[in-house]
Amino acid sequence: MTERNAFKMNGFLVLLLMLMLVAGAIYFFINLQFIIIGILMVLLAVVLLSGMLIVQPNQAKAITFFGRYLGSIREAGIWFTVPFSISKKVSLRVRNFNSAKLKVNDVEGNPIEIAAVIVFKVVDSAKALFDVDNYEQFVEIQSETALRHVATKYPYDNFHDEGYSLRGNTEEIAAELAKELQSRLTVSGVEVLEARLTHLAYATEIASAMLQRQQAAAIIAARQKIVEGAVGMAQMAIDKLQQEGTVELDEERKVTMINNLMVAIVSDKAAQPVINAGSLY
């Protein structure tokens, strides 16, 4: 079912007509010989009153008449619509939903805790009211389902810099979560404005082990950078000495110099130089 515009008239004009009918009925009731006309005018005023409704800002009212959907009124104000119809209101304001912390397994089977905030609004009042039982509850359930589905497609962390990870690609994960949610919530007339992860962590039972793994990976990565820099600095030093002709280095002295530079740069502690006062040999 798709939303459409319902019949409506300016409510103030109809309200003025109702007041005129009531005033006329009072006049005819005073003149007892026209009581029937007064009763008819009162009945007509009651009929008009049954079609009056007030629409608040950022609100829509779906009009049904004996079980048939006639349309929706979105414009704020006082309106007159089909008499004896029933109106159901739905808010068009932007709302957000904070999911509970869900415990799921990532693509590698590691248990993680994840939560998200979903920002949404109703864009089709007919679908929100008549195509699903309770659209707010529907949003909550589908949000958690989509979050679980996205979380199981990626690893928590990527130690090899290949592909996406939940921790390292938050923007991409948020975009995919919003797309996944929109495909699920279209049937309820809801538009997803934003979806963001608010909590992401390893489950308690493996948090300590995974922290040690992250620390080890960070140490290895740092060591690789240090070694690459040390090799480049040693090579640059030898090339500089040879270009300027400061000293002549044979292969054995080059090896010794490279070894000393590598030890001084790569070592965790400050190097303690040993001064050789005699010959190298």
Instruction: Give helix and strand order, one letter per element, not per position.
Output: EHHEEEEEEEEHHHEHH
Q: Roughly what percent helix?
A: 40-55%
* Global structural class: alpha+beta
Average pLDDT = 84
**Percentage beta strand:** 15-25%
Q: Just give the CATH class of the largest domain.
A: Alpha Beta
Taking the alpha carbons of the first and last residues, their distance comes to 94 Å
Overall shape:
rod-shaped
In DSSP terms (H or I, runs of 4 or more residues), the helix count works out at 7
Please give the domain count.
3
Radius of gyration: 38 Å
Corresponding CATH architecture of the largest domain: 2-Layer Sandwich
**CATH topology (fold) name of the largest domain:** Tetrahydropterin Synthase, Chain A
Regions with little confidence, pLDDT below 50 for 5+ residues: none
| CATH homology-level superfamily of the largest domain | Band 7 domain
Count every beta strand, where a strand is a DSSP E run of 2 or more residues: 10
Give a short account of the largest sheet: 4 strands, antiparallel
Transmembrane segments: 12-30, 36-55
Organism: Desulforamulus ferrireducens
Protein name: Band 7 domain-containing protein
Domain Band: 50-214
